[in-house]
Amino acid sequence: MEAHDHARTQPRPLPRLKAGVWRALVGGGPRGNEELTTIAGAILIVLLAVIGVTIIRIGQLLWLHLFVGLLLLGPIVVKTASTGYRFIRYYTQNAVYRTKGPPEPILRALAPIVIASTVVVFITGILLLAFGPSGRAELLFLHKASFFVWLAPTGAHVLGHLPAMLRWVSAPRSGPEGLGTPPGATGRWLVLGGGLALGLIIAVALIPDFGSWTAHTAVLHGDH
């Protein structure tokens, strides 16, 4: 009887285990959200730098421009989702996010332009890939125009997030959790990896559609 009573008084490990798993996946609050947004932004900067190089030498690097452009889709979804989540939590009066405060006014003002121009850039790019060089006239103009509209506000947006990126780079990674890395790191890396995997799957799946564009560009480059 005593053994039975003792067993009943022992804490159940399962709820604590579930809480630990949950904390590892979705914990972190505003700091975790900021870290996810920051890392996704850093990935985008690297990939967009590659896109910039391909634009300079588009004749030789069109295949890379197409591949990296499609690869960008995953990280862009992650970045948009993380910033959108913070927006929703703040404006639905979540106490923790209200304490963190809103993004800088300039970033809030630029966000609609960045999102709208990003959507147009990628939709026109995907449509160009689907229709090929034969149907490119209006779409190519929209793609280029939306890119130039996108460039300046996105550059300002990136500069606005540079302090957070520098804080993340310089933050200590050792010591008790919370000093450098907020809870939920496992979940954040899964989301980031999943975003990259999604973009990679799309890019690889659409490689066969690159042929009409790369062949067309090769002919033009050879004639030149």
Name the descriptors.
224 residues; mainly alpha; 10 helices; 83% helix
* Percent strand: under 5%
Helix proportion range: over 70%
The count of strands amounts to 0
Oligomer classification: single chain
General form: elongated
Structural class: mainly alpha
From the alpha carbons, calculate the radius of gyration and give it in angstroms.
23 Å
Your description of this structure?
The protein contains ten helices and no strands. By secondary structure, it is mostly helical. Helix 3 packs across helix 8 and helix 4 packs antiparallel against helix 10. 20% of the residues are buried.
Please provide a brief summary of the model.
It contains ten helices and no strands. The chain is mainly α. The radius of gyration is 23 Å and the shape is elongated.
Protein topology:
Elements: H1 2-9, H2 13-26, H3 29-56, H4 58-71, H5 73-91, H6 95-100, H7 105-131, H8 137-170, H9 185-205, H10 210-223
Helix pairs in contact: 3-4, 3-5, 3-8, 3-9, 4-9, 4-10, 5-9, 7-8
